[in-house]
Design goal:
The protein has about 60 residues and is α+β, with helices and mostly antiparallel strands. It contains 2 helices and 2 strands, in the order αββα.
């Protein structure tokens, strides 16, 4: 935020709240975007509820 933003009364938007734990999801933190209803999740919360899919590893033949 620049000093001009502060003088103009600019306030950044509040971060989204994780629908699982109720804590804010800070910018640049991992989040899960696979919710069919578009609700925000921390990635680790989605993992704990087994909503994510493990990455498949390709074995070299």
């Amino acid at each position: 935020m620049t000093s001009a933003d502060k003088k103009a009364g600019f306030t950044p938007p509040a971060p989204p709240i994780c629908c699982h734990c109720g804590q804010p999801i800070e910018p640049a933190r991992p989040h899960w975007a696979g919710d069919p209803e578009g609700r925000p999740w921390h990635y680790h919360c989605a993992e704990s509820m087994r909503l994510t899919r493990p990455l498949r590893t390709v074995s070299a033949a």
